[in-house]
Design goal:
By secondary structure, this protein is mainly α. Helices cover 49% and strands 5% of the residues.
């Protein structure tokens, strides 16, 4: 009986380890797309996709060095993301060096033709 418990516990731990490892293998673009479509991202009230349906308006964002949104000049894509989060989505800005920012920028860059 003790052997059976140990065996079941081991299988559970191994399965959990593989699940966690598999979850971590999503690409930055996949994680960014999930954030882009999440209405609760950054504490907001709607998803980025509600204003930028299928990336509308973001077609060249990945190639830009400067952005003008609502007559405000922004010096990076990260600043533009946070501006939209705060002004359009009524959310809280995210750390420009965070994994979430890297992921959402990575997804936004997929809209820029190469």
């Amino acid at each position: 009986m003790k052997f059976l418990r140990i065996l079941l516990f081991s299988i559970l731990i191994i399965g959990l380890t593989f699940s966690i490892a598999a979850a971590g293998k999503h690409t930055p673009q996949e994680r960014g797309k999930a954030l882009f479509n999440d209405p609760k991202f950054a504490g907001g009230s709607k998803s980025c996709n509600e204003c930028h349906m299928n990336g509308k308006g973001l077609e060249k964002a990945g190639a830009k060095k400067e952005f003008t949104i609502m007559n405000k000049k922004l010096n990076s894509i990260e600043d533009a993301v946070n501006f939209c989060i705060e002004k359009a989505n009524k959310g809280k800005p995210i750390d420009v060096k965070s994994q979430q920012m890297k992921d959402i920028v990575s997804y936004i860059e997929t809209f820029t033709p190469r």
